[in-house]
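Notes from hallway chat w/ T.B., transcribed later so I don't forget. T.B. wanted the structure written out for a chain they're using in a teaching module, and asked if we could keep both sequence and structure tokens in one place. Agreed to drop them here.
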Amino acid sequence: MRLGDRAVALSIGAIAVGAYLAVGFGLATDYDYYGRLASALLHGRWWLEEAPSWLNELLSCGDGRFCVAYPPLPAILALPLVPFLPTSVAQVVASRVAGGASVGILYCALRGLAMPRAYALCGVALSALGTTLFFTSVDGRAWYAAHAAAMLFLSASFAVATRGGTPAAVGALLGVAALALVAARRRGTTYRTALLGVVLGGLPLALLYIGYDLLRWGTPLDSGYARLAEGDFFFNHGLFSILYLPRHLYAIFLAPPELVEGTPFFLRPRFEGMSLFLTTPAFLWVFAGLRHVRRDVIIAATATAALLALLPDVFHGTVGFQQFGYRFSIDAQPFLVTLALAGDGLSRGAWRRWPSILFGGAMALSLVINFYATIAITRFGYWQ
């Protein structure tokens, strides 16, 4: 990476982290599953000793032991903070730092695609302030903190792949095999070699997680989610089913905000979700970016990575509520941002120097919508 790009990436990450911390200043969360788990880990325990009534997704995992049903990475990120902050604060601060830091890393990934600096800067501004990542990272409750942590490592994996890093590093950071094609193209190696590196890189972390499941549930399977879904109306066809797809398509494409009369905040986000393209109008350019799939192997691999990342989400029993927008989109956000930028700026294999006025307007609208929603929800409780 050129020194200039490295300095820009570090500056962007620092600015984004500062902005997220400033917007969330003074806010904590009642849903501090990860903060409590981080505190337990510091005391040599992988379980909690109490289960408050409002933390209804803690599961019994032994006599007097209660386990967090989710993977522990956000708790690990909060570990340096829990000696100094309450668990309800440590968790949200870790979420904001992870979400903000992901922006600088995403810049590296976009520049690794030989994207002009103007487009790369537009991409990180869109990701940081014009998508549901903004609200999700700032709020930092358990489900949201997990998305912020995932975005950090997803962006890192994408950056390693686009800059020709080792496939094993891609696998260690993420484990998405579609990125092996990007790594193979950037390194000049075969896809088979790159894919093997991705698998081998992800294997140690997979084994660690299997061991963690054995400690929690006594089985290598991640049975915590299955226990949470038992008897739940939204999971009447199991955790995953193709029958859940229509509700996700509605949430992604059609779900509107609520109109509430008699208040300046007359358009209120619905906590059940809101269309991805109403939340981030600039993502409409994703469809234009898909036109390059047949002509550009990197764009094809990026689109495939987005599809693979979203497949488990769109077959999941719920659409992600409570949320602003469609928060599952964060699982594929670096790829969606790339496709949207390509939709505006890529033509016959070459990038335009500057974004179009129309795309710039859609970006500005995305930033306004997400800033409005973040302030309205976090500071005024305007959530319908």
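Follow-up for T.B.: The first helix runs from residue 3 to 23. Might be a good example for the class.
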